[in-house]
Amino acid sequence: MLYLYSFIEIVYVLMAAPLMVGVQRSLEERMESKQGPSIFQPYYDLVKLFHKESLVPKVSSPVFRLGPYLIVMFYAFLAMILPIITAYPLAFAPSADFIGGGLIFGAAAAIKKFSAIDSRSNYAHLGTSRSASLAVFTEPIMVLIFIMLGVMSNTNNPFVINNVLRSSPQWYFSLVHGFVSAAFFMILIVETGQLPVESNTNGELGMIDQAMPFEYTGTDLAMYKLASYMKTFILLSVFLNVYVIPFGVPMENSGFLSIIIYMGIHLLKLLGLIIIFALLNTTVSKFRLYKNFDFLAVAFALAFLASLAYYIVK
């Protein structure tokens, strides 16, 4: 059954990830009193791109073509080892803990940068350099956040962390958990390209992630977009299921029906977080590029305060 649940989990992520992006974009347009696209627009875009021809720059190597497919494979593997639809490990979960998952995320980001640079496009180089400059600061903050969660639960296993937070009110309502959650939320804004760090436009002065796939077309671009949707979906799921709302995730021996029911509950939890992002994106102005580092400094300060609070309370 564990293999069946793993299969259901990865299909769930693949099918629901574009929907969450479509819901957010539609909400943002409606908040600005516009008609807005359908919530299913990302599906339409993917289908259209899958039916188009992929053009490859003459100067690129096979890395350019392989990159998007490898990234999707990495995120598919992450979907099977993280607590998305269950609070207990499935068949492939023992393959990596939180630190291992972070390394896989880092490997996917590195492949993304290498394949973008391989296009030899000036815009791709621009976006890659900006993304790398932010990653220099976001990744150490993520490691510090994972370390603090490990200190709280005496493990780096995300399933155990979920169980500790849902069963220990003293940890869930502690300053350590509050600071860690706030720091992760700020990193989430950076990693998913929300305002005030990045907007979904192709403006040269501010684009980061939008510049990297500049030379991709057709099926390759569809896979690149799918990987981006999966990354957003997985990060939001980890934030909700492990950090903020660990309650209600099916425990072991809960049964197949409880997992199916929780998928609907999980989508509602994601919808609440997406509404928050939509409000941010329609009310907050975009930072200048150099101001993004001030934003990351605040995230680091919160993560550092979590470590101080732990040792003071202890």
What does it look like?
By secondary structure, this protein is an all-alpha fold. The chain has one domain. The protein contains eleven helices and no strands. The chain has helices at residues 2-31, 41-50, 62-81, 98-117, 122-153, 158-167, 169-172, 175-191, 218-244, 256-283, 292-313. Helix 8 runs antiparallel to helix 9 (218-244). The radius of gyration is 19 Å and the shape is globular. 40% of the residues are buried.
Short description:
By secondary structure, the chain is mainly α. Helix content is 70%, strand content 0%.
Structural key phrases:
314 residues, mainly alpha, 11 helices
Our estimate of the beta-strand percent is under 5%
Q: What's the main sheet like? A: none
Please tell me what the overall shape is.
globular
Poorly predicted parts: none
Number of helices: 11
N- to C-terminal distance = 41 Å
Kindly name the structural category.
Answer: mainly alpha
Mean pLDDT: 87
What's the Cα radius of gyration? 19 Å
Helix fraction, binned, reads over 70%
Q: Tell me how many strands there are.
A: 0
N-to-C SSE string, H for helix and E for strand:
HHHHHHHHHHH
What number of structural domains do the residues give? 1
Secondary structure blueprint with pairings:
Layout: H1 2-31, H2 41-50, H3 62-81, H4 98-117, H5 122-153, H6 158-167, H7 169-172, H8 175-191, H9 218-244, H10 256-283, H11 292-313
Helix pairs in contact: 1-3, 1-9, 1-10, 2-9, 3-4, 3-9, 4-5, 5-6, 5-8, 5-11, 8-9, 8-11
